[in-house]
Structure formats: structure tokens, C-alpha cells
Design goal:
Shape: globular
Structural class: alpha/beta
Bound molecules: pyridoxal-5'-phosphate
Number of strands: 13
Length: 500
């Protein structure tokens, strides 16, 4: 067998000791991002240990049930309908219809699929319908376009506010347009797009308007209630036709739950799929997936009732209190600032005269998990309840990291990174992949390993940024992902390798 293949592992012939399996799993988590200590600024949303334990209990009650067939488990069907109704009421149209999906991406896929079917009917001569959206919209739209044969027309955002450019949007709308998209808020800088103006353009041109409130749907209404300025963004805005809202973010539900909502029931029907010719029976399914975990729906239903509006406002108050402290603290540190004026608890730290990726490396070395962004270069912060306790330590380490990143300390490769454009890898690829990306990138750039492949991400971003074009970069990242999703040569079975 070739030396670069891993040793195969078989299904164990006999069942292994349960305690040993669970202990191994607990030990394995030591290497994971420490979200519970408030050191992770994406991926996890924590409502406090008590609520989290309650959600887990609710999930487990429906651990085995499958919401694929709504007539087999009427309890799940009714819970799903209630979650949709409560979400629709919260977001401006109590009579909106919708479904629960596995996450924001699937909700967005459904909105794009519905828009394509709508275009087939209303724009029959258009071969490839178009969706006009700001560059800051979530890549789930790009994924949807890739899957469904729809063309995306990206429009710029305003330079200082990072909000969708209304005039550019208006210009981009043609007779091929099926839908306009705005976000509330967008993920990169956490600002709400000018939804009222975008939706007015959609209405004037007789096209659809989707609001991506995946991260904001269960936060903005409560932030507004706390007295913060939140521009109109929901289903009540004239012209808005659909909205995506994640329950598994600030809804604090278990992972695997989002809502897709439509003002018009006839539009929702266009997301559905039915096949009547299968020998296994007549098949109909509302969303992308077949089997749908009952636990995710049950947990969402349970947490909405457990917290109630008051509970969500309280959690939002705690989060916004943490946001204020972060804002004030960051304002006191020369060399970094928050980009734009974020409307809630999602934001981006950018450098003022220093390399922010270098600051990111220093923060990583101090045990913080911060995603890197591009255009402009920045570090992402999504604040949640777990950060209440860590905010002072964060600010102290940020100050130290900024100090350690002053210009005279920069190395040669890092200098090259400054001002250059970073590819898609920066947002989606975690640190371990980056070293593979770098190796691949250095091969492409004909830099030998002997030249010292940089280990720190600031230097890697610099190298990736100097690749000829972003298409190459997408290939490199896909190769890296491909390599990551296999066992490596020398890998032992986890159960044998890890000593709990
Ligand atoms: C998280 C997010 C999504 C995608 O949601 P997933 O649950 O990760 O699939 C889409 N849009 C925005 C603005 C988001 O923050």
C-alpha cells in the first residue's frame, strides 16, 4: 500500500465499552475552540447554562422522531407551525407562511428556488433569471445560484457605512431580474441594509425582495425594544416578499433550525417538491432535506416558550451591554476600530495603520478564536452571552496584541499582505486548513518549502492575496477542504489514540 494512504480502520467487530467511548469524546473536546470561556466570536450562541440544558432536554424528547411526514407526527407539525407563526408575528406579518429548515443556508436555498420558479412563470423568456444583491450578502446565495442555475449580480456597498448601495441596486435591475436581496444585518460588518429603499425598487419593478435576517431576526426586534435605533427591515416593509430567520442563532434553539417566511402563500408553494411516480409511494417534501430531525423543531418550540419575549429582551440587554463595553474598550485602543456603525451585536475590527491579520495572530496565540475577513481586512465579532465574563480579558489581550503588531515589527511577507485583497479562504477556512492552503499557494507561486513556509496566518493571507486571481484561490481552498475531510497517513483510531 502506498505510503501516503492512511491505515484503514474497520467497524469494530464487537461493541466497545460505552464509558470509554464517552470519556474519549470528552477528552477530544480539549482541542476544540473554547466557546464556553467566551473565547469564540462566531459559531456558538449561548443563552446561559440553565436554558441550554432545558433546550437539550426538549431536543432529547424528540430525538427519534422524523418530521419528514407531517401526518405521522402531528405534534411536530403543530410545533413547526407555531414556531413559524410566532416568528412571523415577531417580524411584522402574523399571517405570513413558512417552514422550518436545517439552517440559514437551507432557508436561503429555498427562497432562491422559489424565486427561480417565480421567474419561470413571470419571466418565461428569460433563460437565466438574475438576483441582485450586495457583495456583503451571505455566500449561501452564491451556493444557491450555483445549485439552481440562477445568476447573481453583486452590487457594491457604500464605502463608509457598508450598507447596500441603493443607486447601484436600482441600476442593476433589468427585465431578467427575479429578486433583490438585502440583509438585516449583513454578517461582515453587522449593519442593516436600507431595506425600505431596496424593497421599494423591487416593488416598482414588480420583482421579489428577500430579507436575510438569519442572524438578526431574533435579535433586532429586542434591540429595538431596548431603545436602540433599528431601521425598518421586516415583513411589514412594503415590497418585502420573503425572509430567512435562524432559530439556531439568537433564537438559542438547538443547531439545525431556521425559518423561511413568505408574505404570499403562493410564493411558498414554489419552494416545494413533489414526485407522484415513485413505487415507494407519493413523495412530497417542503424543503431540501428528506428526513428532518424532530429534535431541532421541538427544541425551537420549547425555547421560544421557555424564554418568552421578556427572556429574549433580557438576553439581548446582556449582549448589548457587552457590545457597549467592547465598543468603548476598542475606541480606547489606538490602531484598531470598529468598521461602520453596527446595528446590533455583529461587528468587525479593522486596523488603523497596522496589519489587522497580525493582530489576529497575536490574539490566536493568546487563545482567542476570531475569524478573519476581507475587503476590508478585519476580525469578526459576533457577541453572545458567553462573552459577558470574558470582555475585560479580551480588551486587555487586544491592547497587548495591537502593541505587539506595531509596524516596525512586521515581517517581510506580512508587509506584502497590507492593502492586498484576500480570497474567500479567509472567511470560511479555519486555521488548520490555512497551512495546507499556504503550502498549495506557495507551490503555485513557486516558493519552495525551503524558503520557509510561514506558519502565521498574517503571512499566509499575504501569500494568498498575491495569487493571480480568486478563481485559483477557490481551487486551492477546495483542495485543502478535500484533504481535511479524509484521515491522514499515520492517524490512529481515535479510541486508541486518545487516553481519556
Ligand atoms: C449565519 C448566516 C447565514 C447562514 O446560516 P447557516 O445557519 O450558517 O446556514 C445566512 N445569512 C446570515 C446573515 C448569517 O449570519
Amino acid at each position: 500500500m502506498s505510503a501516503d494512504l492512511p491505515d484503514p480502520i474497520d467497524l469494530p467487530a464487537h461493541g466497545q465499552d460505552g464509558a470509554r467511548i464517552l470519556d474519549t469524546m470528552r477528552a477530544l473536546r480539549d482541542d476544540d475552540a473554547r466557546w464556553h470561556d467566551g473565547r469564540v466570536f462566531s459559531l456558538v450562541f449561548h443563552p446561559g447554562d440553565e436554558t441550554a440544558a432545558f433546550v437539550r432536554e426538549a431536543y432529547n424528547l424528540y430525538f427519534s422522531e422524523n418530521a419528514l411526514n407531517p401526518s405521522a407526527f402531528p405534534s411536530l407539525r403543530r410545533m413547526e407551525n407555531e414556531v413559524v407563526s410566532m416568528t412571523a408575528s415577531l417580524l411584522g406579518n402574523p399571517h405570513a407562511v413558512g417552514n422550518l429548515t436545517s439552517g440559514g443556508t437551507e432557508s436561503i436555498l429555498m427562497a432562491v428556488k422559489a424565486a427561480r420558479e417565480w421567474a419561470r412563470e413571470h419571466r418565461p423568456k428569460v433563460r437565466e433569471p438574475e438576483i441582485v444583491l450586495p457583495v456583503t450578502a451571505h455566500p449561501a446565495f452564491d451556493k444557491a445560484a450555483h445549485y439552481f442555475g440562477v445568476k447573481l449580480v453583486h452590487v457594491p456597498v457604500e464605502r463608509d457605512t457598508y450598507r447596500a448601495d441603493v443607486a447601484a441596486t436600482e441600476k442593476a435591475v433589468t427585465r431578467r431580474t427575479a429578486m433583490i436581496v438585502g440583509s438585516a444585518p449583513q454578517y461582515p460588518q453587522g449593519v442593516v441594509d436600507p431595506i425600505t429603499a431596496l424593497a421599494a425598487i423591487a416593488e416598482n419593478h414588480g420583482v421579489l425582495m428577500h430579507v436575510d435576517a438569519c442572524v438578526g431576526g431574533y435579535m433586532l426586534p429586542f434591540v429595538r425594544e431596548l431603545g436602540y435605533d433599528v431601521p425598518p427591515f421586516d415583513l411589514s416593509v412594503p415590497g418585502v416578499t420573503s425572509m430567512s430567520v435562524d432559530l439556531h442563532k439568537y433564537g438559542y434553539a438547538a443547531k439545525g433550525c431556521s425559518a423561511i417566511l413568505y408574505n404570499e402563500p403562493s410564493l411558498r408553494k414554489r419552494q416545494y417538491f413533489a414526485y407522484a411516480g415513485w413505487p415507494g409511494g407519493i413523495y412530497v417534501s417542503p424543503t431540501m432535506t428528506g428526513t428532518r430531525p424532530g429534535g431541532a423543531i421541538a427544541a425551537a418550540w420549547a425555547v421560544l416558550h421557555r424564554l418568552g419575549r421578556e427572556g429574549y429582551v433580557d438576553l439581548a440587554r446582556q449582549v448589548m451591554h457587552t457590545v457597549e463595553r467592547l465598543r468603548d474598550g476598542i475606541a480606547d485602543i489606538d490602531g484598531v476600530r470598529i468598521a461602520g456603525s453596527p446595528h446590533m451585536s455583529v461587528m468587525c475590527i479593522v486596523g488603523d495603520g497596522l496589519d489587522i491579520y497580525r493582530v489576529g495572530d497575536e490574539m490566536t496565540a493568546r487563545g482567542w478564536h476570531l475569524d478573519r475577513q476581507q475587503d476590508p481586512a478585519g476580525l469578526h465579532l459576533t457577541v453572545n452571552g458567553a462573552h459577558l465574563e470574558s470582555v475585560d480579558a479580551f480588551l486587555a489581550d487586544l491592547r497587548a496584541s495591537v502593541q505587539a503588531s506595531q509596524p516596525e515589527l512586521r515581517d517581510r511577507l506580512t508587509r506584502r499582505a497590507r492593502g492586498l485583497v484576500l480570497g474567500a479562504a479567509g472567511r470560511v477556512v479555519p486555521a488548520p486548513v490555512l497551512s495546507r492552503v499556504t503550502r498549495a499557494a506557495s507551490r503555485m507561486m513557486k516558493i519552495g518549502e525551503g524558503d520557509g513556509v510561514p506558519k502565521r496566518s498574517a503571512a499566509m493571507y499575504g501569500m494568498m492575496a498575491s495569487l493571480p486571481n480568486k478563481g485559483d484561490l477557490a481551487e486551492v481552498v477546495i483542495d485543502a477542504l478535500d484533504a481535511m475531510t479524509r484521515r491522514r497517513p499515520g492517524d490512529r483510531r481515535l479510541l486508541d489514540e486518545v487516553d481519556p
